Each structure stands twice: as structure tokens, then as C-alpha cells.
Amino acid sequence: MDKDHGRVEERIYTALRPQEVLDESQYEPWRNMSSLVQVERLVTFSDGTERRDKQYYLSSLPAEAVERIGTYIRGHWGIENRLHWHLDVTFREDHCRARKAYAAQNLNTIRKLALAIVSQRKDKLSIRKRLFTADLNIDYLKELLEI
Questions:
Q1: I need a labelling partner for 126 at 20 to 30 A (CA). Which of 6, 16, 38, 65 fits?
Q2: Using CA atoms, how far apart are residues 114 and 144, in angstroms rounded to an integer?
Q3: Residue 27: CB partners within 8 Å, gap ≥ 6?
């Protein structure tokens, strides 16, 4: 259970062995998969409204390791959300007006590369301040790029 941002989120993880839920013809292409995982989420907002949803995952971990699978799923989304937060807030990606051909996709790739490079530096500056400093100071930029 998580309590954050004015909501309470509960998750129920259920993991099954694929051969328990699939018939032989369905199971054959997935023979190397160890478990099917269902995540049932109930989100209760501060105004009392609720939202339910289900997500499904395929895992190479055994169904008996459902707690560990849940930890990995939650960790993955934490990483994913932090990435998107930086893209949206630091790089203002949502305000990008590039729409033609592959421009938006190419810019997204460049932003992710820049974020990866800047994130490797271990100093006390925030990501935004590192980018700002690199923009103003060519020596700092060279350090980041290891030139």
C-alpha cells in the first residue's frame, strides 16, 4: 500500500504458472515463461472516489516468487516515472512542438542520452543545474562528455 499525492494505492499481485491457465496450443509459444502475473490496483483519492485497474505481466521468475516479482514491477515503474518526470520537467518535453516525421522521436532519444550523461556525474548539483552549468561553461561540458 502506498499513500502519496492525496491518494491511497493498494496492489494485489497474483502469479500463476502459464500451464495452469493456458491450453497446450496457447502455452507452446510461451514454453520458457515461468509465470503470468496480474496486478490489481485500487486507488482511493482524497475525495473518496476510487479507480480500479488490472495490468498483466510475463515473467521468467517462478510464480512462487510473487513478492519479488511485485517488487521488481514496482521498481520498474519508479524508474520509468522518474525518467518521464525529468523529460517533462527538466527538458519541458510536453511543450515541444516537433511533430513532423521522426523529429519528436529523435529529440526524445537525444534528451534521454543527455539525461543519461548528466546523471552519471556525482556532484551536489541538480540535473537542471548541471545542464545549465554545461550550457554556460564549456569546461564543465567537456568534463561531462569526458572530452
A1: 6
A2: 10
A3: 18, 19
Q: Which residue has the cell 525529468?
A: 86
Pairing verdict, β 50-59 and 35-45: antiparallel
pTM (global) more than 0.85 = no
What's the DSSP call for residue 65? Answer: G
Indicate the domain borders of the chain: 1-81, 91-147
- Among 47, 42, 16, 48, residue whose Cα is nearest residue 30: 16
Q: Which residues of 31-66 are buried (b: 16+ CB within 10 A; e: fewer)?
A: eebbbbbebeeeeeeeeeeeeeeeeebebeeebeeb
